[in-house]
Amino acid sequence: MEIELILERIVNQLLGTEGLQAIVLGGSRATNTHRPDSDIDIGLYYGARTA
């Protein structure tokens, strides 16, 4: 499966997650230095909790 399709599926699953502010790609894929066997590093940023 192509990386673009994998990332699209991940993003679609995460959309609408309560408090989620950003989804970021990190690691070698973000810097375009990945190899065919590289993993996918994804960071999730959430807003501050409210009481």
What characteristics describe this protein?
51 residues; 2 helices; 2 strands; 31% helix; elongated; Polymerase_NTP_transf_dom
SSE topology:
Layout: H1 3-14, E1 20-26, H2 27-30, E2 41-46
Antiparallel strand pairs: 1-2
InterPro entries: NT_sf (IPR043519), Polymerase_NTP_transf_dom (IPR002934)
Pfam families: NTP_transf_2 (PF01909)
GO molecular function, one term: nucleotidyltransferase activity
Description:
The chain is of the alpha+beta class and 51 residues long. The protein has one domain (3-46). Helices cover 31% and strands 25% of the residues. The protein is built from 2 helices and 2 strands; from the N terminus they run H-E-H-E. It has helices at 3-14, 27-30, and strands at residues 20-26, 41-46. A two-stranded antiparallel ribbon has the order 1-2. The longest helix is centred in the first third of the chain and has 12 residues, at 3-14. The mean pLDDT is 92.
Major β-sheet, in short? 2 strands, antiparallel
- How many strands appear in the DSSP assignment? 2
Rounded to the nearest angstrom, the distance between the terminal CA atoms is: 42 Å
Task: Calculate the mean pLDDT score and round it.
Answer: 92
GO molecular function, one term: nucleotidyltransferase activity
Domain Polymerase nucleotidyl transferase: 8-46
Organism: Paenibacillus barengoltzii G22
Protein name: Polymerase nucleotidyl transferase domain-containing protein
How is this structure best summarized?
This protein is 31% helix and 25% strand.
